[in-house]
């Protein structure tokens, strides 16, 4: 059972509705109490999502601002590698326009192991690649 302070609600943030889940839970990882509050906050990043500076930016932001609703006690966080992929793709563009990567989204806050959203690339060796000729 979810703690009584957490509530699952249908996912309605337009940026996130095409992701492979349809309910979210609040308060979220940044302690937004409602989806409406989270939507206002996530929308500041919509230009980054539109230009697709990282293929992972949308999934990363949505799992922070509109986490998947589960029966676990806390929302599932994005994996650190998902964060790093989003940051590495988008931070230089943000800096170009005078913005810094937000402290609350610093990748050190996110797990490198255990249950998290995204490919956790730190725990698996890269696959062997061969070229067919």
TrEMBL record:
Disulfide bond positions: 8-69, 16-62, 83-107
Keywords linked to the UniProt accession: Cell membrane, Developmental protein, Disulfide bond, Glycoprotein, Membrane, Receptor, Signal, Transmembrane, Transmembrane helix, Wnt signaling pathway
Localization, UniProt: Cell membrane
Membrane topology: Multi-pass membrane protein
Entry's Gene Ontology molecular function annotations: Wnt receptor activity; Wnt-protein binding
Pfam family, one: Fz
The keyword Thylakoid is assigned to this record: no
GO cellular component: plasma membrane
GO biological process, one term: sensory neuron migration
Domain FZ: from-to ranges: 3-119
Similarity comment: Belongs to the G-protein coupled receptor Fz/Smo family.
Protein name: Frizzled (inferred by orthology to a D. melanogaster protein)
């Amino acid at each position: 059972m979810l703690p009584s302070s957490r509530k699952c609600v249908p996912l309605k943030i337009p940026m996130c509705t095409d992701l492979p889940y349809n309910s979210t839970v609040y308060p979220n990882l940044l302690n937004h109490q409602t989806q409406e509050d989270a939507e206002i906050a996530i929308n500041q990043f919509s230009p980054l999502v539109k230009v697709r500076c990282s293929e992972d930016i949308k999934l990363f932001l949505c799992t922070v601002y509109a986490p998947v609703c589960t029966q676990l006690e806390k929302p599932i966080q994005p994996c650190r590698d998902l964060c790093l992929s989003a940051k590495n793709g988008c931070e230089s563009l943000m800096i170009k326009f005078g913005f810094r990567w937000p402290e609350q989204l610093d990748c050190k806050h996110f797990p490198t192991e255990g249950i998290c959203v995204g490919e956790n690339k730190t725990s698996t060796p890269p696959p062997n690649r061969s070229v067919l000729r």
